[in-house]
Amino acid sequence: MKAKGKSIFFYIILAIILLIVVTKLSSYIENKYPVDKTAVARILYLPTGNYMKLLSFGYPEFMADLLFIWSIQFIGDGAVVDRYDYLNNIYDTITDLNPKLIDAYRIGALIAYYEMGDMKVVTKILDKGVRNNPMNWQMAVDGGFYCSEQKDHEKSKEYFLQAAHIPDSPTWTWRWVAAENYRLGDKKEALNFWKTALETAVTPTEKRICEGHIHDLIIEIAMEKVEDAVAIFSSFYYRYPNSLSELVAKGFLPHIPVDPNGKVFLYDNATGKVSPQTPFSMYRHIK
Description:
By secondary structure, the chain is mainly α. Among the domains are: 26-133; 203-287. The chain has helices at 2-32, 37-42, 49-54, 60-75, 87-97, 102-116, 119-132, 138-149, 153-164, 172-183, 187-200, 204-237, 244-249, and strands at 266-268, 273-275. It has a two-stranded antiparallel ribbon. The model is unreliable at 39-43 (pLDDT under 50). InterPro entries: TPR-like_helical_dom_sf (IPR011990). Keywords: Membrane, Transmembrane, Transmembrane helix. The chain crosses the membrane at residues 7-29.
């Protein structure tokens, strides 16, 4: 046991010494023989994860930590103008060495998003992290936020739905699934997910938010049914129906829908406009 401890200590010291030597040597060469920083970056060669594992003396996680620390310094060196070209390769190698290094996926994706603006690299890094860590919700949530900000609500919904199904994920992930469905125009699916969000809500504030969205979506969905019936009626008769009752009488509606408070929708037969008697709860409906 003592021999094993001494062996581990030896390799750790050796790795640190090698890192210091390489850093000092690199600095000496750059000062002694000044070259274009772009060229320095372009000749940089980082072996793949499998080769790096052979160089890690059986401690790939430790090697991954060293590379992760180095990567922050390298990516932060503004003089290396093409440093971002290597970002995917660098973080791919780090996470090959240690697939459980969550920070590497998140930092790599963060840099790819805010510094590179490259969603392909962002999703490639995060998708690898999600595959390697199926019980960690953080990377799926990161992907959801990035995609939502880019208006890719379909992909955002997928990420948040994946996160929501992971045990111990925040309850608000279900609210994001519902919100992304709403942004996609699928109000019925949004309503279902808001109901799920209400079931998993913990605090009174969370419950109030969910109830407000459910209330408003019930109104919106019912009102759209009436508006669609009015539009179909007018395409048949080239006029607006005299009343909502006429829509039922002529088979355009099975019955007159009501809002959550049991009130019938207001209808203007001169314009065909339908409006609710009960006010909407959420901010998005306030004009």
